[in-house]
Amino acid sequence: MATSLLQIRMDEDLKNQAAELFESLGMDIPTAIRVFFKRALVEKGLPFDVKTTSSKEADDPMGLLSSLQALNANAQKNGTIGMSEEEIEEEIKQMHAERRKKKCSTR
Prior knowledge:
By secondary structure, the chain is mainly alpha-helical. It is built from 5 helices and no strands. Helices cover 64% and strands 0% of the residues.
């Protein structure tokens, strides 16, 4: 197989940090680049997602923090903030029973 020379320019600090990382993985920069190219061919694209995000999204990529905050706010609004799951289920059962009684009494 014929080989080809690839030259790139990059920040020296970036190169040194990458070299240190790759060395800890048991490879040099050329090997890491070959791994990247091979993986890109397998994936038929970049082997990772490329997207723009705000720093908030980057810190919480799945939106878990904002989801938990929304759940907490909803629980406070509904008065269920300090209730256990069993207490909430019992309250729901009571509400369903009351609805059934109302339906039966309006017939």
